[in-house]
Amino acid sequence: MGMGRGAGSTALGLFQILPVFLCIFPSVTSPCKILKCNSEFWAATSGSHHLGTEEAPEFCTALRAYAHCTRRTARTCRGDLAYHSAVHGIDDLMVQHNCSKDGPTSQPRLRTLPPGDSQERSDSPEICHYEKSFHKHSAAPNYTHCGLFGDPHLRTFTDTFQTCKVQGAWPLIDNNYLNVQVTNTPVLPGSTATATSKLTIIFKSFQECVDQKVYQAEMDELPAAFADGSKNGGDKHGANSLKITEKVSGQHIEIQAKYIGTTIVVRQVGRYLTFAVRMPEEVVNAVEDRDSQGLYLCLRGCPLNQQIDFQTIRSAQATEGRARRKGPSLPAPPEAFTYETATAKCREKLPVEDLYFQSCVFDLLTTGDVNFMLAAYYAFEDVKMLHSNKDKLHLYERTRDLAPGNMAPSETNPALWVALLCLSQCWLCLL
């Protein structure tokens, strides 16, 4: 049977698009049945025999059946990226091939794939590559960043900066694709200062791409492999879409998860760990029930009762330092920093006095450990590498008087100053 350019090229395009759905989204953990819809339509339009132009009505029938299948699972697929991508793809194909939305929707007949055909298609480099699928068929995805370092300080996916206690084990990321859990322990006996001593990352299994993999790091142990000794996603065809690279032995590793467009950086600085991630918004928000993710720190931030107002403490420490206070309020650190010496030390690596600089000063005053300066420095270096918006690299103090966002005091709206000046002049006229 001859192959027409219209429907045939459409089927070829679907071979490139639909496997992405199959490899990115799990088929067991979600009630969404979009994988079943995808596979039925894929099977009906693939194989050694393709739909020719004389079979356009049959192609439209298969396409309507695909649309009907997606409507049946719509309620359970809310927020599912594969579902919404399939719906948009169906609409586009309907228009391209002049298919009527009204007509027969009989189940598409399954076509038997010849031996080796499925294997060959699964080995396509685009199947488990999130960025390539997006760049080819729609606008580029939006990326977000989250980082945890130092005492610990948290930068969320929404660029909120917090200092937290969060002693013990806490979920940092928990979505449909991976789980990240950190364990924070006291830096000094009797101190509220904690730092990350253990990190566990679980990459969930995805059809056609990767097996479930677990990465675990602890103080003085930063392995360059997953817990099972492997360095990639396992035995599946897209295994290399997940891999670990050791940048500096025992100090710096990078994990690339191309099938979800995610990069993770883990470092050991001194005795403690730092974490940074770059992740597409669609992956960040892919949770079964967003309202139940209250303890997903990268998404929601630390609970209020776990947050530390380090800026207020820093100001008090600066005042006490200038007054040459006689004794520290916290247990004596190994090396005593005054506010002036801590500021000078942090300025060596962090010349801009943003929140990374301020957290560095706070950590040196709290712990006396100069490695916390390096932790802040590397955290900012990771932001420069991973954050997609270069205008948001630096974060500054927020006060109630500032507009929403990360506006520094020096960046106050000039119009506001003009208005205040006019008001002050009017007030003087009345006196």
Automatic annotation (TrEMBL):
GO terms for molecular function: coreceptor activity; transferrin receptor binding. GO terms for biological process: BMP signaling pathway; membrane protein ectodomain proteolysis; negative regulation of neuron projection development; neural tube closure; neuron projection development; positive regulation of membrane protein ectodomain proteolysis; positive regulation of transcription by RNA polymerase II; regulation of BMP signaling pathway. Residues 142-388 form the Repulsive guidance molecule C-terminal domain. This is Repulsive guidance molecule BMP co-receptor a. Residues 32-101 form the Repulsive guidance molecule N-terminal domain. It is a lipid-anchor; GPI-anchor. Its main location: membrane. Keywords: Autocatalytic cleavage, Cell membrane, Disulfide bond, Glycoprotein, GPI-anchor, Lipoprotein, Membrane, Signal. Residues 1-31 form the signal peptide. Belongs to the repulsive guidance molecule (RGM) family. The gene is RGMA. PANTHER family: REPULSIVE GUIDANCE MOLECULE A, RGM DOMAIN FAMILY MEMBER DRAG-1. The keyword Protein biosynthesis does not apply. Transmembrane segments: none annotated. GO terms for cellular component: cell surface; endoplasmic reticulum; plasma membrane; side of membrane. It is found in: Cell membrane. Residues 101-124 are annotated as: Disordered.
